[in-house]
Design goal:
single chain; Rossmann fold; five-stranded parallel β-sheet; disordered N terminus
Length: 263
């Protein structure tokens, strides 16, 4: 009756009936929520790159691990890219409120483990702030919450370093563009030349979590939209390898996470 619960494909929340969701949550009361952004990704990167990467990896992990997967949260904070056409930025406080409301809704339905699979650096701060607010408000009754970015997994970083090394950069990376080339499309555009030099470690450290300046300043500093990345190195076959590594790591980490929720 519940074909989705046989592990043949991802348990996508949006395509389940209420009864199918109820059956799935009783098997494993946890869910993956992919979250990304809508923002420029250079000459050959898709606007929805962050959301598409997180969604693709989450749904493949859901298929591998028979895990519930929520619809992707695509609209988040990207103020530093607002000088580029197509970027849609939501205030961080709005993102935090949205995340907290989603957590509350799932908690009310006895979902005890909520795992955010992130594809956009600027999401980390609002997710963590929302987590702390939920924990403060609900105390020990709170669901357990985890946030990981898909590039956090060691298996993924092995592929990224092997294929792109210092030219991975921070934004419009060849890794994320490889994923969208494999699973969506290759943009019909000429990539810009390689940046003059790779990013310094200090810059990467100081700007982690997309801690960038206001939009006009950011565009002056990075006029083609890339941040230290050689996007032209992207290849669909590398995207396939990254998704395979990330999905397997996510599925394993999710089940380890749920073991904490259901000791």
């Amino acid at each position: 009756m519940h074909a989705y619960i046989q592990g043949t494909e991802a348990l996508r929340l949006a395509t389940l009936t209420s009864a199918e969701f109820d059956a799935a949550r009783q098997q494993t009361p946890g869910i993956i929520i992919p979250i990304g952004s809508i923002e420029q990704h250079g000459a050959i990167g898709l606007l929805g790159c962050d959301a598409l990467c997180a969604e693709t990896i989450a749904e493949e992990a859901g298929r591998l691990g028979n895990i519930l997967v929520a619809p992707v949260i695509a609209y988040t904070s990207s103020q530093f890219n607002m000088e580029f056409p197509g970027t849609i930025s939501i205030r961080s406080r709005t993102v935090m409120s949205l995340i907290e409301d989603i957590i509350d809704s799932l908690h009310r339905q006895d979902i005890g483990g909520i795992y955010f699979l992130n594809g956009h650096g600027a999401n980390i701060a609002p997710i963590r702030t929302a987590m702390h607010d939920v924990y403060s408000r609900l105390g020990d009754a709170s669901p357990i919450i985890r946030c990981r970015s898909w590039w956090d997994y060691e298996e993924v970083n092995s592929v990224r370093q092997r294929e792109f090394g210092q030219w991975e950069g921070m934004h419009a990376t060849p890794s994320e563009i490889s994923i969208t080339q494999k699973f969506y499309r290759v943009a019909d555009a000429e990539p810009p030349p390689r940046p003059e030099s790779p990013l310094e470690e200090r810059y990467i450290r100081d700007h982690a979590g997309d801690f960038h300046p206001p939009a006009a300043t950011h565009r002056r500093e990075f006029p083609d939209g890339r941040v230290g990345s050689d996007s032209a190195m992207a290849r669909p076959e590398v995207g396939a390898a990254i998704v395979a590594a990330a999905a397997a790591a996510l599925a394993a980490d999710f089940h380890a996470f749920m073991a904490e929720v259901q000791p």
